[in-house]
Design brief:
Blueprint lengths: L4 E2 L2 H10 L10 H7 L6 H5 L20 H10 L8 E3 L5 E6 L2 E6 L5 E2 L4 E2 L4 E2 H16 L6 E3 L6 E7 L4 H8 L1 H6 L2 E7 L8 H10 L4 H9 L12 H13 L3 E2 L1 E4 L4 E3 L4 H17 L2
Helix pairs in contact: 8-9
């Protein structure tokens, strides 16, 4: 059973509206043909072409988002950039990317759909695969100098965990950090105080980050000890919190694999290893 301490519902609602996201920057050949209205009669499609007259197929031009459509969609979604809008696999819908969240928007910018798109022929969740890819890029771009890391650099597996000092399941997870490392998993912590800026949990996160030994301070803070450290500002905690929001963190601990899969929730060391292996297997099968 995977358990997360829930995020404050108001914060979740604000994030859902402000970060209505979309990605899927791809357009397979079949989608390109369908989008251009190229419908070849079945009888013609099955008719063989004589070898003497056979010619190489002309390359299919990629489908692009019309400038007016892109402008309308960006105007309706605060914070969206023109580069965030892409063609979706569903005719008539476009995708907008903000962080690791995905949504689909109509060409007139009036309707937004949030959910998963499946390819029924391949049984592949297209939304999840693209969402994971977006998360993986964001996590790979994040510097470990802005994290608190436990475990060797050559570990077999690595996860990024958004944590809250006062979260009960976060504390339980951290109490087993030595066993997690022994199981071959390297943990990269980032702060996500669920109560938000200006709260006690946020202040505790700052105190841990400003400590001379952050690893020791985090362990002591999760035991309930008071941490005394010099003030160094909240820029680091804020950047970590913002990244978690962009990635769609729904509760803490929020565990992400290197391929961007959001796998937990509190997990025991054994469950964590199994979840990572399942994620790796699924990612390999999707290639």
């Amino acid at each position: 059973m995977r358990r997360r301490t829930p995020v404050h519902p108001f914060a979740a609602a604000v994030r859902l509206i402000a970060s209505a996201a979309v990605l899927l920057a791809f357009a397979p050949m079949a989608n390109a043909a369908a989008a251009t209205g190229d419908k070849q009669p079945a009888a013609t499609a099955r008719k063989p072409v004589p070898a003497a007259s056979a010619r190489p197929a002309a390359p299919i031009a990629p489908v692009v988002v019309p400038a007016d459509v892109r402008a309308r969609i960006v105007a309706r979604l605060p914070g969206a950039q023109a580069s965030d809008v892409a063609v979706s696999p569903v005719p008539g819908l476009y995708e907008v990317t903000m962080g690791g969240l995905i949504a689909y928007v109509s060409a007139d910018g009036k309707y937004l759909l949030s959910g998963n798109v499946y390819d029924l022929d391949t049984q592949v969740n297209l939304t999840a695969s693209r969402q994971n890819a977006a998360r993986a890029r964001a996590l790979a771009a994040a510097s470990e100098s802005n994290m608190i890391v436990y475990g060797p650099a050559n570990a077999k597996m690595t996860v990024t965990v958004f944590t809250d000092v006062d979260c009960g399941f976060c504390r339980r997870f951290h109490s087993q950090i030595a066993d997690v490392n022994k199981a071959g998993v390297r943990v990269r912590y980032m702060f996500y105080p669920r109560t938000g800026p200006g709260t006690e949990s946020w202040t505790k996160s700052e105190q841990v980050w400003c400590a001379a030994d952050r690893r020791d301070a985090l362990t002591r803070a999760k035991r309930g000890e008071a941490i005394k450290s010099k003030t160094c500002g909240d820029a680091a905690v804020k950047s970590q919190y913002d990244l978690g929001s962009d990635l769609g963190v729904e509760g803490t601990p929020a565990i992400f694999t290197q391929n961007g899969d959001y796998i937990g929730g509190y997990l025991t060391p054994t469950e964590l290893v199994q979840a990572i292996q399942e994620s790796q297997k699924s990612a390999g099968a999707g290639r």
